[in-house]
Design brief:
single chain, about 55% helix
């Protein structure tokens, strides 16, 4: 009497797990209707559902890859990374960051991983495109190593024809699409996918290694538990 989702290993190009029929990964948690839908997720009688994840793994990997001292120190010191970025961009004390400023910084933080454009950020935040462009420029001015890392990544992808994850998985790209003289739409899409691949693909590698370790521990220690 229960419906089970399918978790897919090889659908997403980055290697992350995807969910289908039904897709359980895109159900909003903060909205009332999303919370109502989530109440329908029931384990077998006598069992409970437990979720585990790494905290902000993609942003941590970005800090690792680019080596930006400010980002790395924020994680090392256990600070709220979104508030820390907001304080840097808006040039206010950490304690003075407003909820709205933190929300905007969070959107930029994750948007940078996906190579977000000013138009894309404008749409997500509901602000004029010019303001979004200024926001992105301010971000890269505060974190120049992030911009340099992405530029080097794109240069290597154009030269090699592929992007590599932390564990050596490759995603190949059409060199004609990612070259600087191709059409804007083709180039922009390929560049965003290349920037996203190294970070999200490496996060997927680490999550799957963790899943293997969890499975091993459950088996060896004979827990009454199993992974979905």
């Amino acid at each position: 009497g229960r419906i089970h989702t399918s978790f897919n290993q090889t659908v997403a190009a980055t290697g992350r797990l995807s969910s289908s029929d039904p897709n359980l990964q895109n159900i909003p948690v903060r909205r009332e209707n999303g919370q109502a839908v989530r109440k329908a997720f029931l384990p077998a009688p006598g069992w409970v559902l437990l979720t585990a994840d790494y905290s902000q793994i993609e942003l941590r990997l970005l800090a690792h890859f680019c080596g930006d001292e400010t980002l790395c120190s924020a994680f090392a010191e256990g600070r709220d990374i979104h508030a820390a970025v907001a304080a840097e961009i808006f040039n206010v004390p950490l304690q003075g960051v407003s909820d709205e400023q933190r929300r905007m910084a969070k959107t930029v933080n994750f948007g940078v991983i996906y190579g977000i454009s000013a138009a894309g950020l404008s749409q997500r935040l509901g602000i004029p495109k010019g303001d979004a462009a200024t926001f992105i420029t301010s971000y890269f001015a505060r974190y120049p190593k992030v911009e340099a890392y992405q530029a080097n990544l794109l240069r290597d992808t154009r030269a090699n024809g592929y992007t590599t994850t932390l564990l050596g998985r490759r995603r190949h790209f059409d060199r004609t699409a990612i070259r600087s003289n191709s059409s804007y739409q083709n180039r922009n899409t390929a560049e965003r996918e290349a920037i996203n691949m190294e970070v999200q693909g490496s996060a997927a590698d680490m999550i799957k290694l963790a899943m293997l370790e969890v499975r091993r521990a459950l088996r060896e220690e004979r827990f009454q538990a199993r992974m979905l």
